[in-house]
Amino acid sequence: MPETLDAALTDEAVLATYRRMFAALARDSGAVVDDPALVDIAETLFDAFAEAGEEWLTHEQMRHACRTHPTDQFENRLRVLRGLGAIREVFPKPNQLRYRASFTSVVGLMFIRRMMDDGGQSEMHRLLALEDLNVADPSTTMEEARQSAGNLARAFRLWALELITLTNGTIEELREQAPKLWGTEEIARRAQSLHGTILRRWPGLDRTCTELRAAIYAYSDASRRAAGRLADSAGTTRNLTLLPAETWRTFAQTASKERLAAVLDGFVFDAPAPWHDPAAIATAVDEAPRPAPVRPAPPRSPLPDTGPVDYADGGVAGLDRLTAVAESALGGRAAVALAEVLTGDWASMRRVLADLASADLRPELPYRLCWSDALSADPGGHPSWRSDGTLERVTTDG
Amino acid sequence: MAEIPGTQNPGTQNPGIETPGTENPNTKNPGAEVDPGGAAALEHARARAHGPLALRLAEPAPPGFVRLSGGDATPVAGEGAAGPGAASTRTPVVALPVWPDGVTPSVLDEYGLAPVPVERSGETRRVLAACLRACWTDLAAEPWPGAPASISDVLACYRALTGRGDDMTRSWAVGALRRLADTGWIIRSGDVVRLGPRCATWPPESHAVLRELVRRLPGPQPADGPATLSLEESGSGDPAPSDLAPSETATSGPVLSDTASSVTASSVAAPSVTGPSDHRPVSAGRDETSPDFDGLLSPYDERRRAELVAALMAVEHAAEPVHEARFAALRDPALRRTLAEMLARRGRTLIQRRDTWISGYDDAVAARLIGASRRTAGARPGLTEGERAVLTLVLVHSVAIPRADGLLSEDTWLSPYPVAVEELRRRTLLPIGELESALRTLRQVGLLTQVKAVSEEAPGGYVPGPQFHRLTAAARRRLQEELILAAGPQTPLATAIRSRRA
Questions:
Q1: Which of A254, A368, A379, B190 has an alpha carbon 20 to 30 Å from B19's alpha carbon atom?
Q2: pLDDT beyond 80 at A125
Q3: CB A239 to CB B202 under 8 A?
Q4: Are B203 and B141 in contact (CB under 8 A)?
């Protein structure tokens, strides 16, 4: 379901075009889809078929390709497409599981999408080009030419009538619809050249040609009138909408400097005239970024610096102290549990532990701390938990 | 050459100078306040569109102008004795519009309104201060016209002011000098700088501020001075004045005999700068013509009068349209009518957009201005061809394409969709060399606004600038039509436009 009014309007415009396009083929007035998403299903399916190759697709594969659409919508669509022959069994026999798609339907869908974009203008261009080739073909008969001219006359006449009705309608509708309907001078020129070709070759067709000419003129006139009404009523920038973005891009990319500049030829703009108030000048001077002042060197000690001391010399006394701490903890034994050594308040425990850990890390001292995996907790005690471990003297004879 | 107002003699006039008076000024009734021919209005519009008016020596300025003579009339050696054509780069007399009742655009500050932003304002103003320091040699007199100074002195003052002498600071200062020269605050010819005509519009009561400022600014320091600062842009083959040693120039000639020669003991007095006689011609003067609004303003009491003047300054100088709630003269229809008449005398008109107002060129006056400049031989004033082409491209990318895509809903020429410089550089037929300088000029004028990149999805670029607020509805419609005619000349829309104009 469309969520906004705008979306609903867009959907309705799309559906209206669908209905108009297939009115000639429909059996009853409800025969055209009532949700634009249904066309998307068909398009998704054709895409999937194009990907699939010679194996074509099974029902499950088709369902998978359309997995974003609800099952009942998909089944409904598949039934219609099969019923109309757009999708058929690969071989016409019972219990056939594989399906293929019809080339004609795909081309038809492409056509639909293009009609949606420009209301059939490019089709008219192609049609005119083809008709031009046809009437120039030596094998074309006069009857064929008459038919072709008659068809074109009818198309142009209807086209013009629709434009005239729009021109007399609301400006909003005109703005929305007119760009799809009105033709360029190119279309009128092409039609007139076709008309000239027919008339030269079959002077007997002058009556048909007069009708064609009248239809072309009516159409050109209706185009101009619709454009004129829009130009009169369209505010000061809204008409820019009436050229497609691609036209604007092409213009920006291919126009010469002179052509671009000519657009603004007749406009007067202000010369730069900034005001520099005396107070603002004074402020600007006061706020001038000053260069960073030269940074004074940090103060140095007046005593001579002897440079870095030799680390090993200072370390000996430290090793002696660590040995003393470890030996006093061991008390002559080869090993002692840490729980025994770490007593007293936290500060002294911490100091002793730090010294023992240092002794442990010194490879030249024969003391090691061995930690067990156990952890004894004593919520009321001090400290409240401790890892069990022992301090050992390592025999160095090995 | 006969100075007959009302005759058009573009061939005999100097092509570079706008020739006022070609539109049949009010000769029948010169004293009248009303301006039936609209000549003064046209001249005001011309001054707004093309900068200070250049007048001939005996030519009076229209009402509402200040006429400045001699500010830059110092003849240049080698040119002074030459024929009439020699003044092609010098205009002896210029005229600038003055504001009623002595207000200046600073009045916008009192109302908290933003003026059109000044590019690199701090730097530009500091360089202007340096120019003042170098050129305002006699502090007892008014700053304008001052004395000419060499660019090296100005740069030395600037360096002393900021305490930085690196190359980047210097090139910024040179850029600021260019902007000041473009906008009439200084006049620069070759290596010589003078104070420009706009310096004459500082109200006298503000001179004290400037005097105080110049007194405390350090002077140029000659130690590492002029010799290192020869300027690459020295024009027209003048010998560089910086060749002269300070000791030489301090004693050279009678040039600075009357004004503070001690202040400018450096290269100010280069022989190429000053003439053989006095450095300030006898004719140097500043006279204001009859105020053009008095007849309109006199019926009002002081408060109303101030409101009208404030509203005039607001709509003429604010960057964006101003809300009518802020100004009684915009709110009250009777006062607004008077305001519109004031504007009309200057070739301007009020433009409304909902509850906001701004001023723009009156359509008829703009058409006459265009017509007059088309008839003038030689280079057209205003934007160059390259600048107009770049502006058109920005309008296409920033307004036309988003509108064709249905992204814009407001009926305006302003747009939130910037066009990347890369797009202009890569996918147009514009010569790349012109692009950068055109963008700079258009930015400075307020025809383009630069948008900084915020993220990957919102890259920066250019959008139409605040000047597009100032287009009348007719001008906006015409702009739309011109774009359609240029981009889709074969469309029925273009045919309709052409047939309607025919």
A1: B190
A2: no
A3: no
A4: no
* Residues B233 and B170: beta-carbon distance below 8 Å: no
Name A106's Cβ contacts closer than 8 Å, sequence gap at least 6.
Answer: A46, A50
Is B409 strand, coil or helix? Answer: coil
- Contact yes or no for B183 and A272 at CB 8 A: yes
Q: Is A330 exposed, middle or buried (0-12, 13-18, 19+ CB in 10 A)?
A: middle
Q: Please list the residues that pair with A99 across neighbouring strands.
A: A57, A89
The type of residue at B301 is D
The answer to whether the CB atoms of B49 and A256 lie below 8 A apart is no
Distance CA B90, CA B235 (A): 14
Exposed/middle/buried for B86, CB within 10 Å: 0-12, 13-18, 19+? middle
In one letter, which amino acid is B363?
Answer: D
Computed over every residue of chain A, the mean pLDDT equals 79
Which has the minimum average pLDDT: A37-41, A249-253, B424-428, B484-488? A37-41
Note if the pTM is more than 0.80.
Answer: no
Query: In sequence order, which ranges of B332-431 are alpha helices (DSSP H)?
Result: 333-345, 363-375, 385-395, 401-404, 421-426
Strands of B98-216, DSSP E: 149-150, 186-189, 192-195
Distance between CA B234 and CA B195 in Å, rounded?
18
Do residue A262 and residue B477 have CB atoms under 8 angstroms apart? Answer: no
For the stretch B52-66, pLDDT in tens is: 888 887 788 888 888
| Residues written for chain B | 502
- State the smallest CA–CA distance between residue B490 and chain A in angstroms: 6
Question: For residue A227, which residues of chain B lie inside 8 Å, CB to CB?
Answer: 491-493, 495-496
pLDDT digits (tens, 9 = 90+) for A27-38: 666 666 777 777
Kindly list the residues from chain B whose CB atom is less than 8 angstroms away from the CB atom of residue A247.
Answer: 404, 487-488
The CATH label, of 2.40.50.140, 3.10.450.50, 3.50.50.60, 1.10.10.10, for the domain at A5-111 is 1.10.10.10
* B404 closest CB neighbour out of A243, A253, A273: A243
Domain-wise residue ranges, chain A: 5-111, 119-247, 315-393
CA B461 to chain centre: 25
Tell me the per-residue pLDDT of B21-33, one tens digit each, with 9 for 90 and over: 333 333 333 344 4
Chain B residue with CA closest to A230: the answer is B493
Under 8 Å between Cβ of B126 and B179: no
Q: Which residue has the tokens 């025999």?
A: A395
Q: How far apart are CA A224 and CA A178, in angstroms?
A: 11
What is the number of H-type helices and E-type strands within chain A? 16, 6
Please, what sign has the CA dihedral across residues B270, B275, B279, B284?
A: negative
Q: Which residues contact B125 (CB under 8 A, 6 or more apart)?
A: A276, A280, A281, A283, A284, A285, B118
Show Cβ contacts of residue B401 under 8 Å, excluding neighbours closer than 6 positions: A245, A248, A249, B417
Nearest to B484 among A183, A184, A239 (CB): A239
Min distance A43 CA to chain B CA atoms (Å): 25
Cα dist from B16 to B24, B53, B368, B384, whole Å: 21, 11, 19, 14
Residues B190, B192, B194, B196, Cα dihedral to 10°:
20
3-state secondary structure of A397: coil
Q: Is the pLDDT of residue A68 over 60?
A: yes
Residue whose C-alpha is closest to residue B9's, from B101, B1, A230 = B1
User: Are the CB atoms for A209 and A150 separated by under 8 Å?
Assistant: no
Using DSSP, state whether B352 is helix, strand or coil.
strand
